[in-house]
Amino acid sequence: MKKIVLLALIALAVLIVACAAPPEPTKAPAPTAVPAQPTKAPEPTKAPAPTTAPAQPTKAPEPTKAPEPTKAAAPTTAPVAAKPLKIGLLTDQTGALAIYGPMLENGFALGLDYATGGTNTIAGRPVQVVIKDTASKPDVGTQVARDLIEKENVDMLVGVPSSGVALAVNELAKQYKKIYIAQPAAGTEITGKNFNPYVFRTSRSNEQDALASGAALIKLGKTFVQIAPDYAFGYGSATGFYNVVKAGGGKFAVNDDKDKVGAIYIPQDAKDFTPYLQKVLDAKADVLIVTWAGAGFVPLFQQMQQLGVFKTMTVYTGIGDNQTLKTGFTNAVGVKGINVYHYTLPKNDVNDWLVKNHVAKFKTPPDLFTEGGFTAAQMLVAGLKGTSGDPDPDKLIKFYENNFSFDGPKGKYSVRPYDHVMLQTLFVAEITNVTDPEFKYVKLAAEIKPEDFTPSCTLEGEYASRCPKK
Question: What region, left, alpha or beta, does residue 448 occupy, with left being phi > 0 and alpha being psi -120 to 50 degrees?
């Protein structure tokens, strides 16, 4: 049997087997209030009135004794005294990517608590978060995002798991001139050919996944084939891997052209993968690159095992969330791959704070996209502090494009000013087990710093001139 190698499509994080309890952060403020996550997203037609955003608990659990947070100083001239800042959080509580919604919401809540020092205020203005479910569907996402802007009068937008929905929100951000921070959607197009100046991201892109994986892929074989979901995330990922493999001298056994990029596309809601996997087997390639996300990951891998895919070729794919690892990777112990985030991998004070407080509040460690929600909140708060609480988009764009960076759970994050790509560390991890009760499933194989790989600038049309000249 060939060695199976798994790579994260969604994020790079690798687990070093850590001790049972995360180390005490040295300089993290203790939370005094953590925004509560609603158990059910408000219906788009019955949005809460502006004065009633999701309730904030009066007290949050304090896992350890830490210094009292310093309260944010009120600006000398606030845009509107004490007027709340309203944030629209687009999530998936139903639909194909519903597994990721709670990770985003929980991470965002804790990120707000951390970044505001437990006050839930920015420049003297309280923060209200209005959460909407997009159901992983672009049409639903478009409507609820429009409702957030027109009916809820939100100042900024954050989210969403689906890249297809994120691209739809991109257009609304431009139309209504609202800052939109994309997270955890990975579609390269978000800050590529569908870029506009109102859109930023804290998520990594498909191309960043592929670039970080490139050197490893070329060592696995000479011929390749890909499978990917038939929507924006799949297209972006397949294109990224195609470019990396071709640049390294590899060939694709089927669809080897720039339009189909060596991929076999599968409907996102597919249940029976047999006909597609038969095409994979017929290709007789050395390596299968798998891009997938959501609940379908488990049945896909189960059917791959049943059809003997692992026995005939090397499989390279993403290491996903903890539940997917537990249920879908029982025969993959020892494999390596790219992972967006695993709580045991980064070693810094911010991640220590996140892990400790997530366990205290939610009774489980952070998961795949928890870090993404956390960093989106960090970026949002930093921007609004930089403008003294003013959500004016022109002021925020100027702030974020002025060498903006911050320290988050994976280390240093930096906005690339000309296309708003978020430069960040990625990890290669090795799966050590799928049975640990604290989800300590991986160990670190390699840490890939932002300076180790450079995503291309893929802006088009009126924004193409923003790319640096080669």
Answer: beta
- Residue 384: give its domain's CATH number: 3.40.50.2300
Residue 52: inside a domain, yes or no?
Answer: yes
In a domain, 414, yes or no: yes
Distance of CA 188 to the CA centre of its chain: 12
User: Span 456-461, mean pLDDT?
Assistant: 96
Contacts with 417 (C-beta within 8 Å, 6 or more apart), sequence order: 400, 401, 402, 403, 404
- Is 448 part of a structural domain of the chain? no
In this structure, the number of other CB atoms found within 10 A of the CB of residue 443 comes to 19
Q: Where are the alpha helices (DSSP H) in 134-272?
A: 138-150, 163-176, 206-218, 232-247
Closest CA relative to residue 164, chosen from 148, 193, 185, 144: 185
Predicted TM-score (pTM) of the model is 0.76
Alpha-carbon gap, residue 206 to 226, rounded angstroms: 14
**Is pLDDT above 80 for 279?**
yes
Whether residue 242 is contained in a domain is answered as no
Question: Contact 63/22 with Cβ under 8 angstroms?
Answer: no
Give CA–CA dist 133/318, Å, rounded: 25
**Domain count across the chain:** 1
CA–CA distance, 64 with 226 (Å, rounded to integer): 47
Q: Which domain holds residue 182?
A: 44-205+346-423
